[in-house]
Give the backbone structure.
Amino acid sequence: MRTLITALACSSFLAAAAQFQLNPQIGLTYQDLTSGTTGTTFKGAVGWQLGADMRIGDRLFFQPGAFLGRNATVISVDDGEHNTIENDLVRTNLKLKALAGYRIIDGYNFDLRFMAGPSYDVLLSVDNKNDAIGWNKGDFNNGSFNIDAGLGFDLGYFTLEPSASFGLSRAFKDTPALKDLSSKYITYGLTIGVNFGDDDK
């Protein structure tokens, strides 16, 4: 996490020597968790995100960013008496990105970009709408390292970005009650945004 924060801080100094764009965005997320133990299943649900990233460079570029997200997952738990308890588990997190990218198409009115790299999700809150399950923020790890990848479609001043984020860290803490839940986050996103800054075309 310290490396990501340092990269974000240093980007403002690099901007003076390279092409620079700021890209505020808003969009949707779909966050799932990998399989849990027997009797526990997860199903992704739609959430939202907003934030901004920066592009520093030309054909090859560095793309740090920060996004606030509200992600939902539907959890079904077997209570051991052949009853299934279902709950919408909603999490708020701050995603810090340090991606690198390449412009596959670098046209006058259209760019196609590919980017990939590490990210870190800081867990801010957990809302559990069903007390029968009883999970809260204390049951989750405070953050997750991820590998992110995405495509960027730039049409003039506007941009569209589909993306995917694959969690490398356990979502749940390694406590006696949760030690068998080795689930990790898988998040898909789609954002639209506006480009501000230098454009040498």
